[in-house]
Design a protein that fits this description.
Shape: globular
Largest sheet: 12 strands, mixed
Number of strands: 44
Number of helices: 3
Radius of gyration: 24 Å
């Protein structure tokens, strides 16, 4: 997949980001916990993810009370938590957050409810200042890496000012709150003000591109210590320039550099490692390798050059022993017919799966169990589960829980805004009702699927934000976050075609439409569209429009009154348009496709080659309007 193709694919998946972030940022409550990672019922499981002798599970943390990853509960009482960049070790889960990507070495089998974790390895993909933001594309740039945000991206804010008693700052709960680096030219010098310092967890989208799909963006104060990973980037090497080696493994002199997307790494002072052993930086890396590099010292901003203290070659598969069993979660970046596909740069060989097994498309989110091949970069799949398909429809609901009904082992039906939503072990669970957006202490916040019903019943707040996908008529929650109690209800999603919207032009007579089955009565005076400068103008509602609705919910109707405000309005984001008709990529099998960006946990869109115009090359998506 070319980089431009990946960008076009990502753009078609952006609508849910705007919807969910608008809900999070625009309401009086304190935001949401993000979806993504995993979903509940698999739309097309190939073979059940069941009994194996798996020794490594790699995926997103979805809940605490122990640690939930890939739907499994891992006990962490005696586990070592290892930062792969610094080598620092801690015990327990206190330093972990929902949304982090971790590699869990564990004991036990994947068909059991619990396993005991021996090690949890963490390795964020970027640490540094936000140098640029593109609100239309829902991206930020950190350490030269383009970070794709989606409805699956969680946010946390660790800055000291959030909990300060004097002049506290509001927590950053979405991309809208992030500040990018600015430079102002003076008569003699240029003044540069750094953007927010962030740590980015997520997945590399494509082995041929260093684009990151973020699962968690954690904001903090700039580092004051001398950790060699204060400023860090991880990605695929695209350019190698070799200098003169000193003949040692402590670095090189001259012009040895490698490039990762928009960042050049100067390795003249670096200690380089591969497979845990020191290597000569002059010959350590080649194009296509994944490299993690960092420095204790901040680069000049915006970051385009980093004088690295360390650089290490990262294995695509988190185990090195051929024949070991590994479980990997991620987004499919390319498909090679019916033979293989690529997830997180790892080639997944599907030849050993049963005949007729449904295979994923580009953009699908999958969970794979298999055996590590001798090359250390591919996996022979023994089990495949499609966790989220590109055509899954996204819906965000904010309101009070009116019912919780067990529907199976660790599975519940939760009613919000009159809609029944399935919650299970793959749903990301978070409670921000007491301490605000950032409540990271798992010992004080054991909110997980095993405690779900009793925890929610005992909560002082019954207001939740649910991000869900509709599959075969059923809503499945990707995330559920308990918010501070509120009487404001909210809804974000696509306007239903049936029943058709009925627009009104008279204040006092509501426009009536449905979003994900939720009935909305909105006074036309409170229905607006927003341009790129933030200006609002009146508009009407059409089927397929992406909308964010805030108002009051009663008698199964979400009502928006005539006076628009943050808590009472309809924002119509329109359709996600695509104006490139010249280069359509893979091509579809069933019509032109609508490119409407329905979304999954990492943002999706139609046009995956099976039901639309295809992946597309060099598209020029025009954003949200």
């Amino acid at each position: 997949m070319r980089k431009s193709e990946a960008r076009g694919w990502a753009m078609r998946r952006i609508l849910p980001v705007a919807l969910v972030l608008a809900v999070a940022a625009g309401l009086s409550a304190c935001g949401g916990g993000g979806g993504g990672g995993e979903t509940g019922a698999a739309p097309a499981p190939a073979t059940p993810v069941t009994a194996t002798d798996t020794t490594m599970s790699s995926g997103v943390i979805t809940a605490f009370g122990s640690v939930f990853v890939n739907g499994h509960r891992f006990r962490t009482e005696r586990a070592r938590v290892i930062d792969d960049d610094t080598g620092a070790e801690t015990t327990g889960a206190a330093g972990l957050e929902v949304g982090m990507v971790v590699d869990v070495k564990h004991r036990g089998r994947d068909d059991r409810d619990e396993a005991e974790a021996d090690e949890l390895h963490v390795h964020p993909l970027a640490r540094g200042f936000v140098d640029a933001k593109d609100d239309a594309a829902a991206t930020v740039t950190v350490m030269g890496q383009v970070v794709q945000l989606s409805s699956g991206t969680g946010f946390s804010d660790r800055r000291a000012c959030v909990s300060a008693t004097v002049n506290p700052c509001a927590p950053i709960i979405s991309a809208e709150g992030l500040v990018a680096t600015t430079s102002v030219a003076g008569t003699a010098t240029t003044t540069t003000t750094p953007g927010n310092y962030v740590t980015v967890n997520g997945f590399l989208f494509d082995s041929a591109s260093s684009d990151i799909v973020a699962t968690l963006v954690s904001v903090s104060d700039p580092p004051s210590g001398n950790s060699r990973a204060n400023f860090k980037a991880e990605g695929v090497v695209s350019v190698v320039t070799t200098g003169t080696s000193t003949g040692t493994t402590t670095g090189t002199v001259g012009t040895t550099t490698v490039s990762i997307n928009g960042l050049t790494l100067d390795l003249s002072k670096a200690v380089c490692r591969a497979r845990g052993s020191p290597v000569d930086c002059a010959s350590a890396f080649a194009n296509g390798d994944i490299v993690s590099a960092g420095s204790a010292t901040a680069p000049a901003l915006p970051a385009t050059l980093l004088v690295a203290d360390f650089a290490r070659k990262v294995n695509k598969v988190p185990l090195e022993e051929a024949g070991a069993t590994v479980e990997v979660e991620g987004i499919v970046s390319s498909v090679n017919g019916t033979a293989s596909f690529v997830v997180r740069g790892i080639v997944i060989d599907v030849g050993g799966l049963p005949a007729g097994t449904p295979l994923p498309n580009v953009g699908d989110e999958v969970r794979v169990i298999g055996t590590l091949a001798a090359d250390g970069a591919s996996v022979q799949a023994t089990s495949l589960r499609i966790e989220a398909e590109v055509e899954d429809a996204k819906l965000a609901l904010k309101g009070n829980v009116t019912g919780v009904t067990p529907s199976g082992t660790n599975t519940f039906l939760v009613t919000v805004l009159g809609q029944d939503v399935t919650v299970d072990a793959n749903t990301r669970l978070k409670d921000v009702s007491v301490r605000g957006w950032d409540r990271r202490d798992p010992t004080a916040n054991p909110f997980n699927i095993t405690t779900f019903q009793t925890y929610l019943a005992a909560s002082a707040s019954q207001t939740v934000l649910v991000v869900a996908e509709r599959r075969a008529g059923a809503l499945v929650a990707k995330s559920l976050t308990i918010l501070p109690a509120s009487t404001v209800a909210a809804l974000a999603g696509r306007v239903d075609a049936t029943p058709a919207p009925v627009n009104s032009t008279v204040t006092g007579t509501p426009t009536v439409f449905f979003v994900g089955g939720v009935e909305v009565h909105a006074d036309p005076a409170a229905i607006v569209k927003v341009d790129r400068r933030g200006a609002t103008t009146p508009t009407t509602i059409a089927a397929g429009d992406q909308v964010v609705v805030t108002g009051t919910f009663a008698n199964d109707v979400l009502t928006v009154g005539p006076v628009p405000s943050r808590d009472n309005r309809v924002i119509n984001l329109g359709l996600l348009l695509d104006d490139d008709d010249d280069d359509r990529g893979r091509g579809g099998n069933s019509g032109p496709g609508n490119g409407n960006g329905n979304g999954n946990g990492n943002g999706n869109g139609n046009g995956n080659g099976n039901s639309g115009r295809g992946g597309g090359h060099d598209r020029h998506d025009r954003g949200l309007f």
